[in-house]
């Protein structure tokens, strides 16, 4: 989207700082992304920066149960899942250094200290660490030259581990000028069960914590089950020393894509325009139409999502989003049914029962042997019962194993990830992975071009080349490609100049496609992922 001249000519980048208070899990990432969406729809270039307090360099080594999905960027960075929202809402392809972690910051400061950059000085949290944080922010600004930088400070105000970020964004006001920075604070406005009254005290206290750190909010978003009453807005405004119009409802909604529309209606842009001397006029009609399809579509389809972290929906966040994007375009509502594949292999859940009434099956990405046999049984069912199947990364590797076992007569076929001593290692480590011992950022990561085979389903979806995003250590073992293909399996996408199989499909099946990539990561509401789009279409039939 091109910025109108008057906007792109403006030299000064504006900063919007989003902090959260009261409780965690209020949806700060979504709130920030929603503000961003409004600005982007007005033609502005918006770049997100997320600051995480943990000491890991990135979330790549964390269990998805602990941290939710690891989001992989085109440049190969493994980042916080909030970047999923940013990619989906802001029409940007984020870069890994837009995600600051204390692990990265301390690494950077320590390296500078060893190089002698601070020679003669005692290296301190303030100013050295806070300056390092600001340096990282300004580096992004000078690289990207955005109209607006949207900075999300992780955690809840008052958390020890985020204090240095809070101090850095406080200092930023002096560096960039008071008219170029707006502080948005997201809080919680509870209503106790059995009462109707919206309570402002947690917000007041949270604003007090902000103020103790020298931050005065310009806008407060109060997350609440109901629109904030005028009286509560007045009360919050009085205590927080802002205009009543700067108190915005962060309404509980079923569908996060509604949030930009809620904010728009609440007049958040008027406040930001005034504060930052912007002239942004959002154009949200197309978005509004798609959002309305998401809840009002006339038909529902039942999708079995078969994995081992099904108790924590966050670990498959992008898969869920991608399904809903496709649903909005096909005008159906995908209803997701979580199938815990560890139960299938333990024998406490029967495949037939688990999949009864389903219109389509997805096996998403995964690691390790637990639950894998359960997934293979599910895939076999999809193949032999002609049910639409979409395999994502591990979901492709396991589909290849299933095919090798049950169609190619290699009954002992397996992945060396599951059984290192298998007789038929149809899935094996990528050659370059065999010497790697470090765990962080060592998988085959990031965006890669995929060469598409002519006259395949993949070609119908992508044309001659697709750009997809990867995160894996294992691959289809080239030694078995011929045998698999002779028995009918088609590898319809591969790495250019290399024997890495990236997309597979089965002919004579209503829809059976799988990819070594994670196409869910690049799906957007206004541009659904072709795999998901085609899969959802076939589920409707
Ligand atoms: N465990 C498999 C691998 O490392 C699949 C990874 C994934 O699904 N992201 O190759």
UniProtKB/TrEMBL annotation:
Span of domain Glutamine amidotransferase: 313-536
Pathway named in the protein's UniProt entry: Pyrimidine metabolism; CTP biosynthesis via de novo pathway; CTP from UDP: step 2/2
GO cellular component: cytoophidium
InterPro entries attached to this UniProt entry: Class_I_gatase-like, CTP_synthase, CTP_synthase_N, GATASE, GATase1_CTP_Synthase, P-loop_NTPase
Origin: domain of life: Archaea
Ranges where the CTP synthase N-terminal domain occurs: 14-278
Keywords: ATP-binding, Glutamine amidotransferase, Ligase, Magnesium, Metal-binding, Nucleotide-binding, Pyrimidine biosynthesis
GO molecular function terms attached to this record: ATP binding; CTP synthase activity; identical protein binding; metal ion binding
PANTHER family: CTP SYNTHASE, CTP SYNTHASE-RELATED
UniProt protein name: CTP synthase
Taxonomic source organism: Candidatus Iainarchaeum sp
């Amino acid at each position: 989207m091109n910025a109108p001249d008057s906007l792109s000519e403006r030299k000064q980048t504006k900063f919007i700082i989003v902090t959260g208070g009261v409780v965690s899990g209020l949806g700060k990432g979504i709130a920030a992304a929603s503000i961003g969406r409004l600005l982007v729809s007005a033609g502005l270039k918006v770049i997100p920066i997320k600051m995480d307090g943990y000491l890991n360099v990135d979330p790549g080594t964390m269990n998805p149960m602990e941290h939710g999905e690891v989001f992989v960027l085109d440049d190969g960075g493994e980042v916080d899942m909030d970047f999923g929202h940013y990619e989906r809402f802001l029409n940007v392809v984020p870069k890994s250094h837009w995600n600051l972690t204390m692990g990265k910051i301390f690494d950077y400061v320590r390296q500078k200290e060893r190089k002698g950059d601070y020679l003669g000085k005692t290296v301190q949290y303030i100013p050295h660490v806070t300056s390092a944080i600001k340096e990282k922010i300004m580096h992004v600004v000078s690289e990207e030259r955005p109209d607006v930088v949207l900075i999300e400070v992780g955690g809840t105000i008052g958390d020890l581990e985020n204090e240095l970020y809070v101090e850095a964004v406080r200092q930023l006001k002096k560096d960039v000028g008071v008219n170029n920075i707006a502080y948005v604070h997201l809080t919680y406005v509870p209503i106790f069960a059995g009462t109707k009254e919206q309570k402002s005290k947690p917000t007041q206290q949270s604003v007090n914590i902000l103020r103790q750190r020298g931050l005065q909010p310009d806008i407060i978003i109060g997350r609440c089950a109901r629109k904030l009453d005028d009286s509560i807005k007045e009360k919050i405004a009085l205590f927080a020393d802002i205009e009543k119009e700067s108190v915005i409802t962060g309404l509980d909604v079923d569908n996060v894509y509604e949030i930009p529309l809620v904010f728009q209606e609440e007049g958040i842009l008027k406040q930001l325009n005034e504060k930052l001397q912007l002239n942004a006029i959002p154009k949200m009609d197309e978005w509004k139409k798609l959002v309305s399809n998401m809840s009002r579509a006339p038909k529902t389809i039942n999708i079995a999502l078969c994995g081992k972290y099904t108790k924590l929906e966050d670990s498959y966040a992008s898969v869920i989003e991608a399904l809903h994007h496709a649903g909005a375009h096909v005008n159906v509502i995908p209803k997701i049914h979580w199938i815990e594949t560890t139960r299938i292999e333990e024998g406490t859940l029967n495949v037939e029962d688990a999949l009864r009434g389903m219109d389509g099956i997805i096996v998403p990405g995964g690691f390790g042997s637990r639950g894998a046999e359960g997934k293979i049984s599910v895939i076999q069912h999809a193949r032999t019962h002609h049910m639409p199947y979409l395999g994502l990364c591990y979901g492709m590797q396991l589909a290849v194993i299933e095919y090798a076992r049950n169609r190619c007569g290699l009954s002992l076929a397996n992945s060396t990830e599951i059984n290192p001593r298998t007789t038929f290692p149809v899935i094996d480590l990528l050659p370059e992975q065999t010497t790697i011992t470090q765990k962080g950022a060592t998988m085959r990561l990031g965006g890669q071009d995929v060469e598409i085979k002519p006259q395949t389903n993949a070609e119908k979806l992508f044309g001659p080349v697709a750009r997809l995003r990867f995160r894996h250590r294992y691959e289809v073992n080239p030694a078995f490609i011929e045998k698999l293909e002779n028995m009918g399996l088609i590898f319809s996408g591969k790495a250019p100049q290399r024997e890495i199989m990236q997309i597979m499909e089965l002919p004579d099946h209503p829809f059976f496609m799988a990819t070594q990539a994670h196409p869910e990561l690049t799906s957007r509401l206004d541009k659904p992922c072709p795999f998901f789009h085609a899969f959802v279409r076939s589920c409707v039939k």
